Amino acid sequence: MNNTARLFIILFSIPLFCSCFAVVASPSKGKAQSPVTITVEAKQIPELRQAVDFVVRATSKFNTDNLVINVHPPKGMVLNSGELSWQGAANRGQTKMLRFNASFTEQSKQNVSVNAFVVSPSGSRFGAQAEYVLPWFQTPISSKSSHPRQRGDQAVVEYPIP
After folding, report:
1. pLDDT in tens, the chain (162 residues)
2. What are the strands of the beta sheet with 125-132, ordered from one edge?
3. Phi, psi of 134 (to 5 degrees)
């Protein structure tokens, strides 16, 4: 092999080697995201023994044959109408809605929790969750905290973190 051939091999192998190393050594820049987004809202502020309409919205970020939506009711929630779960197909970007009407017989220390997930062909679940915070769950830390306090230019009411 002559010097020209050796030089040719060296000149082409160095960039190839460096590019392979850069691909292996560079960390992933993106943060893992859920393939589903979910929200839950009440059409009016819940009160004890009053019927409330809830809407759960779940959106898949890709086509799936197996999107699952579940509502986890707190203690004291009574389902008046609608369903607390749904399962089926969803196209990319399509929002599926689950509507239900419920009332509350007691002031539970839990919130209305919802989750949505897609099930892969291998059985793995990937999803997201959300909560509707019930108004009686937000109790002030003390009687002094029930009145807004000044913090800079804003009035702040403090609540315990569950």
Report:
1. 676 666 556 655 565 555 554 444 445 566 677 889 999 999 988 989 999 999 999 999 989 999 999 999 999 999 999 999 999 999 999 999 999 999 999 988 889 999 999 988 788 888 999 999 888 765 444 444 344 445 555 545 544 444
2. 85-90, 64-72, 112-119, 125-132
3. -70, 145
Nearest Cα to Cα of residue 59 among 69, 44, 71: 69
Structurally, what CATH architecture does the domain formed by 36-138 represent? Sandwich (2.60)
Retrieve residue 138's tokens: 């937000």
* Domain locations along the chain: 36-138
66, 90 contact by CB (below 8 A): no
What is the number of residues in the chain? Answer: 162
b/e per residue, 53-69, with b = 16+ CB within 10 A?
A: ebebbbbbeeebebbbb
- CA atoms of 116 and 55, how far apart (whole Å): 13
Query: What separation in angstroms does the CA of 52 have from each of 42, 76, 100, 101, 105?
Result: 7, 14, 8, 5, 12
